[in-house]
Amino acid sequence: MHSPITEWPKIEQPREKMRTLGASALTDAELLAIFLRVGVKGKSAVSLAQDLLHHFGNLPRLLSCTPEELTRIHGMGISKWSQIQAAYELVKRSLEETLSEESVFTSPGYAREYLQAKIGRLPHEVFLCLYLDSGMRLIECQELFRGSLSHTAVYPREILKEALARNASALIVAHNHPSGNHIPSEADQELTKMLVKTLHLVDIPLLDHCIVSGTGFFSFLEAGLMRND
Questions:
Q1: Distance CA 113, CA 227 (A)
Q2: Which of 14, 86, 103, 120 has the fewest C-beta atoms lying within 10 Å of its C-beta?
Q3: Is the Cβ–Cβ distance between 52 and 39 less than 8 Å?
Q4: Taking the chain (229 residues) in consecutive chunks of 10 residues, what is each chunk's mean pLDDT?
Q5: What CATH number does the domain located at 107-219 have?
Q6: In 120-155, where does DSSP find H-type helix?
């Protein structure tokens, strides 16, 4: 594994393996190696990628690392951080575009993946609103409130105003728990009830409230806790 990738059997080289077997056949380290392109002295790009994954613990932590965190590692500079972040941003934009073209009920997995990619690893709480049109397609995802490690102040009147400004037909809200615990608190449950009542005044249903963490996801809708009656 430490010899140059060009000396490996063709079928074991990440780019050739992707070409013949498809991207899904590659390990996380092999996919990452394609972005790294080259390793460092004594290590192939795949070995360097394995070291990175081991250092950060998993792929999501690596993707959300700061340039300072990555460039502390031998062989990693700002250009490699930029390449990784550019690829990650393309994934998020692709998911967002899919949500704008298809009903959220047609592709519920995309909404989950999009939210986890967008806010799952943030070190502070944020509160998002996903405004939907009459076809349940995404009009816009807006970060409406931002808070601390454990708390975000949310104002239903602001959510109502922004939803009306976009002529939204329905709404999904989401926030993250940096602590890693994705189970809703009593405050989360009370907020959901309040938002349902507030939006009901203008006939805009709240379809779901999602709580995202780095390792988990909770949907009020899937848990049977959404009531719009």
A1: 24
A2: 86
A3: no
A4: 74 88 90 84 86 87 87 87 88 87 80 88 89 94 78 82 95 91 89 92 94 90 81
A5: 3.40.140.10
A6: none
Class of domain 5-89: mainly alpha
Residue 2's pLDDT is what?
Answer: 59
Domain regions of the chain by residue span: 5-89, 107-219
- pTM equals 0.74
Kindly give the pairing relationship between strand 138-146 and strand 206-212.
Answer: unpaired
Judge contact between 84 and 62, C-beta under 8 A.
yes
Which contacts of 197-204 are long-range, i.e. CB under 8 A and separated by 24 or more positions?
198/156, 198/157, 198/159, 198/160, 199/159, 199/160, 199/163, 199/171, 200/228, 201/160, 202/160, 202/163, 202/164, 204/160, 204/163, 204/164, 204/168, 204/169, 204/170, 204/171
| Residues 6+ positions from 223 with CB-CB distance below 8 Å | none
pLDDT at 205: 95
Stated as kind and residue range, the H or E segment containing 21 is helix 14-21
